[in-house]
Amino acid sequence: MLARIAENIYWMARYIERAENTARLINVTTNLVLDLPRRTNVGWEYLVEIQGTEELYDSLYEYVDEKSILKFIISDTKNPKSILNSLQTATEHASSLRDIIPREAWEQINTLYSTAKLNVQSGLTRKNRHQYLHSIILGAQTITGQLAGTMYQDAGYDMLRMGRNLERADMTTRIIDVRSADLLEDEHEDLPPYDNIQWVSVLKSLTGYQMYRRIVQVQVQRREVLKFLFQERKFPRSFYHSMCEVESCLLSLPKNQDCIDIVNKLQRFVIKKSPEKLSQDELHIYIYKLQFNLNKMHTCIAQTYFISGT
Amino acid sequence: MSIRWGSYKVKGIYDELMRVSGKPREAAKPLCDFLRTLTDKEISEYKSAANLATHVTGVTFTVYNQEEGSLERVWPFDIIPRIIASTEWHTIESAVTQRINALNLFIHDIYHDQKIIKDKVFPLDVLKHSANFHEQCIGITPANNIWAHICGLDLVRDNQGSLYVTEDNLRIPADVSYMLENRLVMQRVFPDIYAEYNILPVDNYASQLHAMLAALSPRKTARPVIVVLTPGSHYATYFEHSYLAQQIGAELVEGRDLYVDGDNIVYMRTIDGFTRIDVVYRCVDEVLIDPEVFNPDSTLGVPGLMRAWRTGNIALANAPGTGIADNNTVYSYVPAIIKYYLDEEPKINNVETYRCFNKSDREYVLANLENLIVKPANITEDCGIFIGPQASRAQCNSLKRLIKNDPYNYIAQPILDLSTTPTLIGNRVETRHLDLKLFALAGNKVQVTPGGLTRAALSSDSLAANSVQHGISKDTWIVDLEDI
Prior knowledge:
The structure holds two protein chains of two kinds.
Chain A: H1 3-35, H2 45-51, H3 54-60, H4 66-75, H5 83-95, H6 103-118, H7 120-123, H8 126-150, H9 155-181, H10 192-205, H11 209-215, H12 222-231, H13 239-251, H14 257-272, H15 280-305
Helix pairs in contact in A: 1-5, 1-8, 1-9, 1-10, 2-9, 5-6, 6-8, 9-10, 9-13, 9-15, 13-14, 14-15
Chain B: E1 18-20, E2 23-24, H1 29-36, H2 40-57, E3 60-65, E4 69-74, E5 77-85, H3 86-110, H4 115-118, H5 124-128, E6 150-157, E7 163-167, H6 176-189, H7 191-195, H8 205-215, E8 226-229, H9 238-248, E9 251-253, E10 258-260, E11 266-270, E12 273-276, E13 279-282, H10 305-311, E14 315-317, H11 328-332, H12 334-342, E15 349-350, E16 354-355, H13 359-367, E17 372-376, E18 386-387, H14 393-405, E19 410-414, E20 420-425, E21 428-442, E22 446-448, E23 453-456, E24 472-479
Parallel strand pairs in B: 5-24, 7-15, 8-9, 8-13, 13-14
Antiparallel strand pairs in B: 1-2, 3-4, 6-7, 6-21, 10-11, 11-12, 16-19, 17-18, 17-19, 20-21, 21-22, 21-23, 23-24
Helix pairs in contact in B: 2-6, 3-12
């Protein structure tokens, strides 16, 4: 497999996953804002923080309000992490993969981007936002399903799964980091019912609420949620699960030793630690280390397999 | 019944299917009889079946723009094929073979001894004024002395029925995928009428292409590594590059995928590391393939590719330098080239061509611009073709100045009245001018694919200017009459 093709597949998968995760995040934030009392400060600006695009935002927008932030995150082409930009980049990568990915999947990617672009104005209104974002999530899931069901499962498919899972793991850590920081401390006496709501929102951002309920069963609380999102092997959006996926892809690829060393280190790091015992500050440092190693993981994959790495 | 051949007016112009109004040519009779029985509803059904099939098989061309990304459009397709009797086809086939053989001898001679110039058959001045001649290729000897391996000749027929070659297209011939896909579409849509004909197959093209390319491999291995070199997915012809790569089981690469080492060996970058390659089907313009030797700004090429080729470590098809024989002035010498190298008369006509560097030709051209087509000698991407009857006085005057300033860069041709063919417009047949693109491969012998891409003009008054651009495409049947 050509190194350029491997690189394109990897990035296509990352950008589709990014668009989907961003859409989920906005939907959940919308619900959270409606549920919480006005005096709590669970603002929209955390969306920008999760993306890590605060500086860019400040240079482009005068006000920090719902409307500006959603425009920035959904449709602003100046924001490299906006949904539309992610979908456009995914489409550009896909267009050079037309002989690699099944035709239906290529058409779906193209359609997802062009309809997202066409309907973007409705996505920016409160009334239609949910529907708009839902269609993006559904479109991205359709692509994932089509590729799983029809793509030839050679090294290219491994690249696809690695891209998707690294992006997913990255987003999981970002959401936990930012969302738990702005959450009230566990013992907050003042607002006990809302504490629960906020951890529910963390789970929902990662589509983990239903599965958490089924598997963990106990009340939604910081300790169990953190364990579930970091360590649950069987939940497809947990950090550990994503690393196991990456590992299984690497095992069938050539020249894999360096990359496998890093992913194994990450797996040990997340399983051996008990993130639920960490204080908020310690958790933040812990997440920073995970992200640092995710970046190392990406660099190692790029240097081993990509044309830009050679 | 919607199609009435009696009211299809032939009017003294050679028609591909009808001898005179209401009387089909022999090879077209079963088809015309079949079409006559169709109701409006059936015609619509066949048309939508064909439309669906073109979408399904992916016969698209890409229009790229920055705003909207790449868009794929489907080339309009007509379900009425063009039919050529095999008896006439054999003449065409041997004429094309003759031309390609002579042109390969010419290119090799030009880059070696230049005997044709020493013998004063071909003027040195024309070579000097040709932008398609590349000194960098002098002295290089490709396998079997063949330079043009993949050829896509354009032909037209005039209103009296005579055939002419209008262009040789030896550089990067395009559109062969449409020929192959049109055939698949027709087979899906018209299995019944197919059964009534003995139609020569076009689908050997891909395996012949693969065999021809594999035979060029400098390393004599069981499975030489062949790649198709494309400028990338933003180019309109990308669909075809991707299609051909799939058909011949080759890797579709861009310049940045390839690497030439200090020993002049060419590799592609894969996830396993570097894989040595043997043969490149080159879909990147010759002046862009190697920034070390040609255009230094090219990002589409591969630094060192020419070194590797010159050393004999890689085969390039078509060979760089081939473009010298695909030049409008050189075109006018093809009959002389055939006589010089093969000692034969050309089996198919050239369109009469006036060379503006020749004083008497130039005077004629300047005095008759409004009735002529003027083309630049050097074929370029946006070669501005001047069509006399459509030009304004100001355009004529500015062209006259250009010709006087740079006579070597212009040739002129009379405008041919082209033949017509019945074409479905709505549910009725109308006459449309048409041309024909043929595809041939030159390995140790020339193989002309029995079929081609027929393009009919979009509108009835379209003055086709000796070729049909962006028309309606048709399948082209070479029919063995013995078996009707």
